[in-house]
Amino acid sequence: MLKFIRMVALPSLFVLAACGTDPAPGPVEQIIVREPGAAPVETAVASAPTDSNPASSLVAEGKAAFANCSACHSLEQDAPHGAGPNLFGIIDKAAGEASGFAYSDALKASGVIWAEAELDSFIADPAAKIPGTTMVAGAIAEPAKRQAVIAYIASVTAN
Ligand code: HEC
Predict the structure, then answer these.
(1) Alpha carbon distance 50, 63 (integer Å)
(2) By C-alpha distance, which of 115, 116, 74 is closest to 98?
(3) How far is the C-alpha of 100 from the C-alpha of 59, rounded, in Å?
(4) Domain spans in the chain, listed from the N-terminal domain onward
(5) pLDDT digits over 35-85, tens only?
(6) Rounded to an integer, what is the distance from CA 64 to the centroid of its chain?
(7) Fold of 54-155
(8) Residue 102 CA, closest ligand 1 atom number
């Protein structure tokens, strides 16, 4: 944008100078002064969530990222299962134990306890972690996003 303005503005300056008229610096200055002023505003908005309490902003980020999961999973205590089992209180529970959900044999036989590290590797690639699982979507490739989702799941507790 700035380059484009310069390309347009500078030749017109030369033209004006060549004509012997005042090069009318007003509009040119305005453009150049405003341009750097705009950038910090955007930066401030983008970094605002990390400025406050880092733990609560991680949870907030995870709440948003849980959109990857909520099509199939509820996190509300006693809410019905969806295409996937209710995940309320899942941290440190044994895999395949939510009553009333038809788990795959693979998940039931996995012997996994959902410690945060196990959740992390499962969300990264469910089928690699538990071959034969029927969780066929919702994987999250970015480690930071998985950490945020796990922090959010851990933050949802009985009150
Ligand atoms: C397309 C639907 C779908 C999406 C999206 C999905 N899951 Fe699942 N999930 C399932 C199904 C189905 C199962 C049961 C798998 C089985 O029995 O093999 C499951 C199982 C699980 C389990 C094991 C639960 C238990 O009781 O042992 C966890 C943990 C889990 N999902 C977490 C997540 C998280 C976190 C996300 C989002 C990052 C997610 N899932 C996204 C469908 C989904």
Answers:
(1) 15
(2) 74
(3) 29
(4) 2-51, 54-155
(5) 555 444 444 444 444 446 888 899 999 999 999 999 999 999 999 999 999
(6) 7
(7) Cytochrome Bc1 Complex; Chain D, domain 2 (1.10.760)
(8) 17
